[in-house]
Amino acid sequence: MALQPSLRPLLIAGRYDAPHTLDIFLDYVCPFSGKLSVAIDKVVKPLVDAGGKYDGKVKVIFRNQVQPWHGSSIFTHEAGLAAARVAPDKFWAFSLLLLQRQGEFYDIPTSTLTPLQIREKLAALFAETGVSDDTVGAFSELLKLKSTPNGGVSVTDELKYTIKFSRQNGVHVSPSVLWDGLLANEVSSSWGEAEWTQFFSQKVVV
Q: By the 8 A CB rule, do 32 and 189 touch?
């Protein structure tokens, strides 16, 4: 599937020129997305990264899936896109950390926080990936509101792209998965090694 150049860090596993594409739509504050992220990291990535059985055959793209019924969803996805911009090699590490610590950004824990405070918490979490203070500063700068009253932040255009991509492909909830551009509704957040191994053995044809 297509991926605009500025979002290339969202390719989290496999080679860019791999013929098969697995698009995985995740929301940082969705419990099922958090569950699936573990399988992605422990099962899927080893299969398609260098040395894996499907190295050179499958690439995996993280797709930001904002779910507006979760109040902090948009803030977390802005943070993910900011991480991709300032530290491309840390995008998946930050995403995985955020997905595993998502409870801190659920509706009730963030209900008494201002948007600025939520973004400060996200910057502190980003710092835990081991990036420099300067990189954290650049991350925070991207999440500052622009001077115009309704202009968003510096990654708003990337956020719009990801939302439009989901909408045009009929993706409404997370987690959702596309295999070579078509919805793969059989994929479940509860899948482990056996299910993913079988899935790839049936789907990969190169």
A: yes
Angle at which helices 115-127 and 73-86 cross, to 10°: 40
- Distance of alpha carbon 25 from alpha carbon 133, whole angstroms: 30
d(C-alpha 56, C-alpha 60), whole Å: 11
Question: How far apart are the C-alpha atoms of 43 and 99, rounded to whole Å?
Answer: 16
Task: Name which of 205, 193, 174 is nearest 42 in CA terms.
Answer: 193
Q: CA separation (Å) from 93 to 14, 38, 41? A: 16, 12, 10
pLDDT tens, position by position, for the chain (206 residues)? 688 999 999 999 999 999 999 999 999 999 999 999 999 999 999 999 999 999 999 999 999 999 999 999 999 999 999 999 999 999 999 999 999 999 999 999 999 999 999 999 999 999 999 999 999 999 999 999 988 899 999 999 999 999 999 999 999 999 999 999 999 999 999 999 999 999 999 999 98
pTM over 0.85, yes/no: yes
25 — phi, psi (to 5°)?
A: -95, 115
How many Cα neighbours within 13 Å face the side chain of 34?
14
Nearest C-alpha neighbor of 125 from the set 146, 147, 143: 143
